[in-house]
Structure formats: structure tokens, C-alpha cells
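Progress report, Aim 2. The chain analyzed during this reporting quarter is listed below.
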Amino acid sequence: MKAVQIHKFGGLESLSWEDVSDPQCSPHKVLLQIKAASINHLDIWVRIGVFPNLVLPHIPGSDGSGVIVDVGSEVNGWSAGDDVMIQPGTYCSDCRFCLESKENYCLNYGILGETENGTHCELMVLNPSQIVKKPSEISFEEAAAFPLVFLTAYGMLIRRAKIEKDETILILGAGSGIGSAAIQIAKLKGCTVIATAGSEEKLKLAKELNADFTINHSKEIIHDKVKEITGGKGVDVVVEHVGESTWESSLKSLGRGGRIVTCGATTGPTVKIDLRHLFMKQQSILGSSMGDATGFCEVVSWLEDGKIKPIVDRTFLMSHVQDAHEYIENRKQFGKVVLVNDFS
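Predicted C-alpha cells for the chain:
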């Protein structure tokens, strides 16, 4: 089969589309023909060497969708020909966190494409616990754009920040996969959404997802605009995944009793905090990583009911993966960039 391989950490030249050995389906697993696989910023971090202990060569990719082509002899409930999408989290199922349905707290928690080979390939062997039926109403490309960002946004907003109806939520980077997913979940829960983006085109698309207010962070100071929108009160929750460049403004945007929930640090991980503001205003800073299996089932049910939708910005052939990475690094997308297998 063909797969995207990283043989050394670095720039776009580190990505190659090459022949690798076909995977073999074991008795407790299924063999999937990948139709489409999206790109997350995690894939760029993997490529440039943010995780230096990663064993190379490595296949990136956390999200994917496809068709089952073989089923292990010990697997029930799945058949060759079933259309599925992939749940990207991996966990042991046996530790106390897994037994409490907190799989993303698992002591052995991992993510496809980061802790093990991922979805940017033609064929992949998976545990049945990592696949769900693809809703017939959506395409393989849309299915590939769905899992990681919606599961992460669910974990941030529902599990960690515990948003409530009528709260005001500031969502940074509306054009990202996380941002576009978070807008939809926050609106589904009856919240007022303030979304930021760096262009008027992306702000227009955020409005189409029913964001109530928008801020052009390339022209406006986020916390000043937030104070204007909220009458000086600030927001109840900030969805942070940018890091150093926005952290100070995120803190200044937060109202009394507010919560910042963060899942990433695209612009850098080192930030400053004035503890006096934190305790005097009784604010909280919450870390969030992916989500649990129950949460994934819930967001899939919302997808099936048409309450949320994956946003596909553009597709590339998987053999053109370098072009796709460059497109994302230039911050051109709104939603997800999806790789389509050349045979599809």
C-alpha cells in the first residue's frame, strides 16, 4: 500500500508518499480501506519534531473514514463493506480512569498519528472500539473532518468548562477545526458566542455558523472588543488553543467566575499569569485533551440528527500532502483540510 511517511523531522520535504507493507488483520481487529483523512495542527507538530521521542519512520493522521475490507475472526457486529469513521483516541480499557468512563485520563492514553501510526495511508488495522458507523447523510470527506475536533471541542466545553445556557463564550480562531466545532456546540447549548478570526471572509463564515458577535483579531484588540460587547462584564468561558500570542488577551477577556479552557498552544506554550487577578475574580484555568468514548457517542448522535456538521474547507489528494500542509501553515482554511486517497 501507499502511505505518508516522515523519516526525519523538519519542513515539507520531510513528508513522502511511498510504498509500505500492507497491514495484516488480526483476530480481534478490523482492516479498513481509508477513503479520506483530515489534517490537524497535531500533524504539523509531529512533522517538525515537537515529539522528539517519536519512532521514525512514522505515518501521521488522527482522523479518517473508510470501508471495512476484512474482519477478524473474533470480531462481532462489523462486516466487510461497512462504511465507518475513526475515533482517534486510544486507551487501555482496564485502568481506573477507563473503568470510570474517563478514557482520555487513561494512564496509557494516546492519539492515532501521534503515539502510533495514523490514518494518512491506504489501509489501516484498528480495534473495533475505534470505529463508528458513518452516517449515510455525510460524505467520507465530511466524516474524516469530524472526529478529533468535535471530540476535543466537546471535551473542552461540556466536560471541562461545563457550559450552561445563556453563558457567553469567547472562541478564538473560528477558522480552525476546533473553532468551527466549538461554535456549533456552544450554540447548540444555548450560549452566546463571540468568535475571532483574522479575515473578514472567515468572520462571515463564523456568522454562518450562528456566531452572535465576531472580532477581527488582525485589526482589533480582542479583550477591548469583548468588554465593549459584554458591557464591561467579560465572558464566562474562553476557548483557548492558540497559546502565547493570545493568552494575555484571553485572561483580560474573562469575567468574574469565568473559565479559560485550553487544548493547545499553536503559537507557543509559555504564558504568564497574575495570580492576584485569578483568585480575586475567582477564575479557573482548565486543561483539556480530547474526550471520552461516551462523549464521542453523543457528538456522533448530534451529527446523525443534523444538529452539527463538519466543515470541509478543501480537499487534496493524499499524494499531495506537502501542498496540504503548506496550505494549513499559511492559515488559509476555514474548518478542515482533508486528504483523499488517490484510488478514491
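The longest helix spans residues 147-160. The CA atoms of residues 25 and 249 lie 50 Å apart. These observations will guide the mutagenesis work planned for the next reporting period.
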